[in-house]
Amino acid sequence: MRADRQRLDKWLWFARFARSRTLAAKLVGSGYVRVNGQRATDPAKGLAVGDVVTLALDRSTLVIRVRDRGTRRGPASEARLLYEDLGSDDAALVTNPDSG
After folding, report:
1. Counting beta carbons within 10 angstroms of the beta carbon of residue 99, is it exposed (0 to 12), middle (13 to 18) or buried (19 or more)?
2. Backbone torsions φ then ψ of 43, nearest 5 degrees
3. pTM surpassing 0.85?
4. How far apart are CA 52 and CA 22, in angstroms?
């Protein structure tokens, strides 16, 4: 793998989106992760700074931009520095035409 990239499953684990690297690989393998709009099914897919990752979780969908590659699985405060949440900017992504 190129020096400017990191495995997708490893990055998801470092960024604390999965409790273990094995669970991160299963999340990717099950088709719940997209990278730059394309479904990622290979946990070894290379992830670079600036890539946009979409995670379809149980009760929500997260859209995040990779800010940095991780070097370890540290505390949550350190993990939050690895990504930027793009979904929180627009509170109402879908509007109800009847409400207003």
Report:
1. exposed
2. -60, -20
3. no
4. 22
